[in-house]
Amino acid sequence: MAKEKKLVEAITSMEEDFAQWYTDVVKKAELIDYSSVRGCMILRPNGYAIWENIQKELDARFKATGVENVYMPMFIPESLLQKEKDHVEGFAPEVAWVTYGGGQELPERLCVRPTSETLFCDFYANIIQSYRDLPKLYNQWCSVVRWEKTTRPFLRTTEFLWQEGHTAHATAEEAEERTEQMLHLYADFCEEVLAIPMIRGKKTEKEKFAGAAATYTIEALMHDGKALQAGTSHNFGDGFARAFNIQYSDKDNKLKYVHQTSWGMTTRLIGAIIMVHGDNSGLVLPPLVAPTQVMIIPIAQHKEGVLEKAEELRGRLKDFRVKVDDSDKSPGWKFSEQEMRGIPVRIEIGPKDIEANQAILVRRDTGEKITVSLNELESKVKEILKNIQKEMLEKARKHLNSHIYVATNYEEFRDIVANKSGFIKAMWCGEEDCENKIKEDTTATSRCMPFEQEQLAETCVCCGKPAKKMVYWGKAY
Amino acid sequence: MAKEKKLVEAITSMEEDFAQWYTDVVKKAELIDYSSVRGCMILRPNGYAIWENIQKELDARFKATGVENVYMPMFIPESLLQKEKDHVEGFAPEVAWVTYGGGQELPERLCVRPTSETLFCDFYANIIQSYRDLPKLYNQWCSVVRWEKTTRPFLRTTEFLWQEGHTAHATAEEAEERTEQMLHLYADFCEEVLAIPMIRGKKTEKEKFAGAAATYTIEALMHDGKALQAGTSHNFGDGFARAFNIQYSDKDNKLKYVHQTSWGMTTRLIGAIIMVHGDNSGLVLPPLVAPTQVMIIPIAQHKEGVLEKAEELRGRLKDFRVKVDDSDKSPGWKFSEQEMRGIPVRIEIGPKDIEANQAILVRRDTGEKITVSLNELESKVKEILKNIQKEMLEKARKHLNSHIYVATNYEEFRDIVANKSGFIKAMWCGEEDCENKIKEDTTATSRCMPFEQEQLAETCVCCGKPAKKMVYWGKAY
Known about the structure:
Two copies of one chain form a homodimer.
Chain A: H1 2-9, H2 18-28, E1 32-34, E2 41-43, H3 45-64, E3 68-69, E4 75-77, H4 78-81, H5 85-91, E5 96-101, E6 104-112, H6 117-127, E7 136-145, E8 159-169, H7 172-192, E9 199-202, E10 214-221, E11 227-237, H8 239-244, E12 247-249, E13 255-257, E14 259-266, H9 268-277, E15 294-298, H10 306-316, E16 322-324, H11 331-340, E17 345-349, H12 351-355, E18 358-363, E19 369-373, H13 377-401, E20 404-406, H14 410-419, E21 423-428, H15 432-442, E22 445-450, E23 469-474
Parallel strand pairs in A: 3-7, 15-16, 15-17, 20-21
Antiparallel strand pairs in A: 1-2, 4-6, 5-6, 7-8, 8-14, 9-10, 9-22, 10-11, 11-14, 12-13, 17-18, 18-19, 21-23, 22-23
Helix pairs in contact in A: 1-11, 3-7
């Protein structure tokens, strides 16, 4: 019993210290381990399996829109990185440089990719000649490196896993369409699969990607009221095409520059899942990404027929990702572990249940206990998993909606930042000076100009000049 | 027509220049492109999709044996790499070193992983305490970097994709069992899925992995009679465990060292597929790994109903990976492209076929044309794909078996190397001196000591001393 207590006690409560709660969950649920390499983490089986489920589902959605996967080198020669001015300025300070290879100093140093725009552009310049070669809709799954000063598991690490899509189009219209299409694909995925509602919008000039003409973003609200940027989609216009000379001969026989996009999501999504759904017993996983959806825990498993029955139920639930915990730990310990790991449904089955031809199903998200006749086990499990998925999204949406505040003047704005946590909707004049002032005064940043604009006031919340856009502001991870 | 000729003419015939044929196929089938990064290649959609199919099938086979996936950092601190003496000696000369990060010189340089034994050992030392924590059966899919002087697409590149499995066990017996289990899993996969027959055996001391107690290998024979090492599985004994202090307390409460294995296969397998199955029209893909299994090519597609019929057939063949080539190229050009890309089955459908309620199916591997009634299209396609898969393995096995020679003395050995191409079976005394002499005299190396040993002679083929093992020798990629 001492050990069982320890497992549960070891988590700081989220009300007491949210950051420590997060770190505890990440470690106790065995999602990651720290490594000997500064700022890099080890993704353990429980963590990596979530990423595999994200990959599988996202990849299928990409392919359904015509995207194909490729793999580009992990190194970028310095001269290639420097071809697009804004891009190199944005990334050069945070890259890692390879200077020696095969025992010799390299004639030109290579950076470990922080992102692969430059490699894709170089490639596209080679393979695109005619309008017949367009569009190119390529994506890659890989890891990238950005030298971060302070790191947190999943949210900000020196190396992280991601996908990066890079497309080339004949026209500006097509590029814009693809940029927005992928943003909505991301948001739909997050809502339908991760049960995380998203604010969809455009970044301000200040916050856009290095080298992009426009950056779109999806922003989520964590349990502590802080915002998390969950995915971005960039329209590059023909800026990179001009820098890398990516031209095609059009139907009219004229040489034209292509228009490009890029879009990415990362293992940061796992951080979002933890911080949106988790509770003081640990992780809570939406069924669609849970590596294990159902954990069967035999009660009094030494008694005749119990383990056999547990195995029989497992066999019957083969349409789900299901396991039996037949280790020699006590049931209480197993419950704690299953809760810590966020497994959506627990099935308790003991001698009395067997006698009554029933099992106890326990929902991880609500703790609700449901007695189910074994005759309808499969259909009940299916129904409960579906309900959990749906209700987790509803709960998260309720949390989001109840943490969006409106400020029409700067006093209100500062008051909300000081006393509440969440998003603040407020009007903005369009000037970077106001973004800077707001950040300095409050640490809140402009998260996005949402697609769904409202006219909350006539004037900028900061400077009082005429307002141009409604912006979501917030403190962010 | 000029352009069509070009596509076909552009391939050197394999009899004329096998190396050039290989390079031509790799480029013309659009598997790879060269990049601006020395020794690194770009995997294009046609190439990467083969790797995806390999991954999917291998990953499922790994998981069926209890293996779980993880992800380790791509960097290894120099001090960590140096912990196991033989290992660092083997890899240090060919690694790439990161010396700058975030604008500053690093206090300790980091190598880009050439393989991750050291990281896994460091991790295992952290997470393994008790016999209850064993075995650990972890694998990762990633890319690794080895600074190669001369490179060839898929066969030897500075960066390549692979999987690396790393396991830790309580006993030496379990580790040996897992080492051999994974080798056979690899060989079965290659035979069943890639249609490439394998010689299974053990490497000599000279050829074993840096730091391993024993290395097992699967060796394939390419069309030109050269050998290709397709996968290896290593038993580390407790060597790494001692270097990294990976101990567990056993049931008897004593501290013991774990026993470890590692095993890997790489994108090199794609090179093997090309060189075993390809012909002078290009790539020939086994159906089970072909990204597209069936290409429907409409004939006279401008005529009424032809494209509609092609689409209808595609819909009916949804159990297969099927495409319609409705581009504005000529049918002849499309045939050449489908052949170059190695798509196993082509379906030709034109107005006359539609009238006769039939289609022409053409096998890529044999060129055989089969007229099929549209009423039995699905079952015929299924049957033909199955036959192709089976007969490609049989053909490759016939080629392998007819290129294995026996030498009982050194004169025979040298004569075979000089005048034939393939494997040479010959007895060996077990001394590295003889391996070195044979390599110097003939450029042939010991490929493996096969599990199925034969007593071909009493004496070593090189020095005449008593023989200990039968060895497969050959020139290798």
